[in-house]
Q: What sequence folds into this?
């Protein structure tokens, strides 16, 4: 039931939410994020987050992901 509540919140809020696993693979993306990015859900689920991060920002994003993993 708690997972259902979390899913309801994630998928219904007007704020873009993208969640990835520890390998930076997109596992969850809500409608607000899809609308902002202009993709369909099937185009992003299972893909690396890098595909929606500007090339010049990828190295700093990778560093942030590694830092978060160490916590």
A:
């Amino acid at each position: 039931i708690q997972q259902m509540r979390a899913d309801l919140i994630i998928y219904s809020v007007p704020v873009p939410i993208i969640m990835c696993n520890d390998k930076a693979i997109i596992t969850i993306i809500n409608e607000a994020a899809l609308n902002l990015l202009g993709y369909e859900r099937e185009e992003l689920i299972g893909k690396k987050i890098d595909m929606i991060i500007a090339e010049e920002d990828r190295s700093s994003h990778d560093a942030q992901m590694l830092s978060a993993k160490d916590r």
Summary: Strands lie at 18-20, 26-29. The first helix runs from residue 2 to 12. The helical segments are 2-12, 31-37, 41-44, 58-69. The chain has a mean pLDDT of 89.
